[in-house]
Amino acid sequence: ASTLGAAAAQSGRYFGTAIASGKLGDSAYTTIANREFNMVTAENEMKIDATEPNRGQFSFSSGDRVYNWAAQNGKRVRGHTLAWHSQQPGWMQSLSGSSLRQAMIDHINGVMGHYKGKIYAWDVVNEAYADSGGGRRDSNLQRTGNDWIEVAFRTARTADPAAKLCYNDYNIDNWTWAKTQGVYNMVRDFKARGVPIDCVGLQSHFNGNSPYNSNYRTTIQSFAALGVDVQITELDIQGGSATTYANVVNDCLAVARCTGITTWGVRDSDSWLGAGAAPLLFDGNGNKKAAYTAVLSALNGG
Ligand code: G3I
């Protein structure tokens, strides 16, 4: 196959990208995005601050722009993200205790209700683990009680039973890291107790401090063995090594329950890291990079 999406589809997987609503008027951007990718994640537009700027007043205009662009072009959508310590609107930042817990529940119901039946998978909870030590990150949500994550998942299952429900985080790619083990133990516990979770998102932002490691395949296999799908949800590789990109793709292809890969942007110039990091598959002029060729070839079976 000659595009990323079609090549991934040969094994029943998807290949996606983050889309920014503000770039949908850039035809160079939309031409590549529409041609190459068959899954879309809104880079910012479905986050808490964007969708509920005032308590109880939901705003879906920019989220819908991304959703509608995807749907009109035949692409599925991952929802990102419902419960997160970051990008909370001011009103939510100032809440605590039971009123914050209720606001989280109301937010999940409001956003998932709006997109009910339209989302392939939701990142229900994002980045809840601390960067070191293997425990939870301190946050206003965590201070509402350790059960906030399972409450979020149970709420989400009821709000849209058709959506896969994911836990999504960064630096859980390296199997030997305490953070990876902390998330693994949470998912194992959820599966053992019947808390509804369907997938784990490995963000996979690789850089000098958190480089790709060959135990990545072990991480994917280990999560999958718990009975959840694994999705690579925000892939970018600082420097854009073609070899590393191919390794990532081959590690996903090696695990049946690794269902798809999303890169966190289209061109280097679209990356949150800045164009200088050269972390994506297309350069700032929209040309295919060596990493693109390596990914396409791996998806096509090497
Ligand atoms: O929308 C405003 C705009 O009005 C204003 O003029 C401009 C000035 O700085 O800021 C704009 O908002 C920025 C927004 O991106 C849209 O460009 C925010 O300041 C900026 O913080 C925000 O950054 C996003 C970041 O998440 C925020 O946490 C990045 O685009 C986005 O790529 C990044 O994505 C995260 C994932 O959601 C979770 N995992 C990590 C990943 C990378 O940080």
UniProtKB/TrEMBL annotation:
The active site is at residue 234. Signal peptide: none annotated. Its EC number is 3.2.1.8. It is an enzyme of class 3 (hydrolase). Residues 1-298 form the GH10 domain. It catalyses: Endohydrolysis of (1->4)-beta-D-xylosidic linkages in xylans. Keywords: Carbohydrate metabolism, Glycosidase, Hydrolase, Polysaccharide degradation, Signal, Xylan degradation. It comes from the Bacteria. Belongs to the glycosyl hydrolase 10 (cellulase F) family. This is Beta-xylanase. It comes from Nonomuraea rosea. The lineage of its organism: Bacteria, Bacillati, Actinomycetota, Actinomycetes, Streptosporangiales.
